[in-house]
Amino acid sequence: MSLIILHGSRLPVVRIARIAGQYAKPRSKPTEVVELPVKGGKEGETEKKEVLSFRGDNVNGYEPDDRAADPDRLLGAYFHSTATLNYIRTLLSSGFANLDNPVDWSFSHVRSPELQSAFGNVIESLQDSLEFMKVASGGSISGGGGERGGMETVEVYTSHEALLLEYEEALTRSWGAPQAAPRSQPDTPILSRSASRIRDSSTSSYPHSPVRRARSPKLSESFHGMSMSASDLREVEVDGGKKWYNTSAHFIWIGDRTRQLDGAHVEYFRGIANPIGIKVGPTMEAEEIVRILDIVNPDRVPGKVTLIGRYGAAKVDQFLPGHIDAVKKTDHPVVWQCDAMHGNTKSSVTDPALKTRHFVDVITEITRSMEIHKEKGTILGGVHLELTGELNEDGFSVTECIGGSMELEDKDLSFNYRTHCDPRLNYEQSLDVAFLLADYLKSKRRGEKPHDILLASLRGRKGEAKQ
């Protein structure tokens, strides 16, 4: 995907994988109603029961009888995150992303002849560029010489929503100048207001993230609501270049359900030096965006904050322009990103128990976001997608989202529906998005109009988003 986008845009692409840590799932309700077999009943007889909601593999199990929270799952999440990172490192170090390796571009899944031709033209141009680079460099794009160059490997960063603060706390580290002399009381600060008391430094070897003095009465009141005295709220100064980093990922974000200004997540995020994201949706007031930016990035550090819009295809025109205007009135330097997945989740018509997303809605939100940013004089700096290259035993991609160049239909979802959480774009649909972005950015670079055939074909015969 990044190679296709890079070729079209002629701009560097930062690859951030939502991986190695996304094992927690925010839920709107603590419980849900499911159908379970009747114990001692007839075969096929079911009854509805209320069970605890599935909150992700690092909290509880997906099966209804495995919904009790288990702290040992946090250790399991750490193990799987580490194993995943090691696997990624092994892939990259073994030449997985080396441009000298031949790439098999197959478009047998593309139903539309016009779309097949458009994709083929892009790949032909890309391969011509790679062949030219090989000839110009003496037969190898990586250039040899024993050192790994920019053409031999790529940089991949990791990210996830920092939902479980207990997990993030254990992986928060300080970096920089030595700490000042210890005070009369233990200097281990509380992580968040989710703790009932300040942890004694003798009970844990983990350093904890700093909690700075509240900037508004609301923040102080939220602490006092937990019976904490003012003396408990000790400030850990970031002196002599010392900073605190969340080491569970390079980039973490605040979700749409946990961005309360006086909440624990915002308090934690303003104490770390990582680049961070903030999910922005229809329920977020423009004034709230400015206030949260003031809290988490008071020094206006460029690149520190990414605003991740997740409006949905039907609401992006209604809310995104106002949010852009609100930020433009401030001096906050932000990166705008489009999450075209989470505002477009629907229930399957064939099987309402299955969640799905329509590809037409995904690309409509992306293209409308790009157009709105162009009108406002701002730049859409990235897209936030949920995707997978997972295949089943027979080599077929997952079937969780409807549409795309392979024209999956609602009745096809059950063929290879694998997700335990949200529906993901499969390998072919992900490439569709990459081609669309590359076409748009290439046209923008050349001052041309994007090719209607690509957008119209991917949107479907009617070329309209389904509301």
From TrEMBL:
Enzyme Commission number(s) of this protein: 2.5.1.54
Region of interest (Disordered), ranges: 176-220
Cofactor note: Binds 1 divalent cation per subunit. The enzyme is active with manganese, cobalt or cadmium ions.
A biological-process GO annotation: amino acid biosynthetic process
Keyword Methyltransferase: no
Pfam families in the cross-refs: DAHP_synth_2
Keyword Transferase: yes
UniProt: phosphoenolpyruvate binding residues: R18, K279, R310
Catalysed reactions, semicolon-separated: D-erythrose 4-phosphate + phosphoenolpyruvate + H2O = 7-phospho-2-dehydro-3-deoxy-D-arabino-heptonate + phosphate
Top-level EC class as recorded in UniProt: transferase
Coiled-coil portions: none
Pathway membership, UniProt: Metabolic intermediate biosynthesis; chorismate biosynthesis; chorismate from D-erythrose 4-phosphate and phosphoenolpyruvate: step 1/7
Required cofactor(s): Mn(2+); Co(2+); Cd(2+)
Binding site for Mn(2+): H342, E386, D422
Xref: Gene3D superfamilies: Aldolase class I
UniProt keywords, alphabetically: Amino-acid biosynthesis, Aromatic amino acid biosynthesis, Cadmium, Cobalt, Manganese, Transferase
Domain of life per record: Eukaryota
Molecular-function GO term, any one: 3-deoxy-7-phosphoheptulonate synthase activity
Family per record: Belongs to the class-II DAHP synthase family.
PANTHER family in the record: PHOSPHO-2-DEHYDRO-3-DEOXYHEPTONATE ALDOLASE (PTHR21337:SF0), PHOSPHO-2-DEHYDRO-3-DEOXYHEPTONATE ALDOLASE 1, 2 (PTHR21337)
Identification of the protein by name: Phospho-2-dehydro-3-deoxyheptonate aldolase
Species this chain originates from: Cryptococcus amylolentus CBS 6039
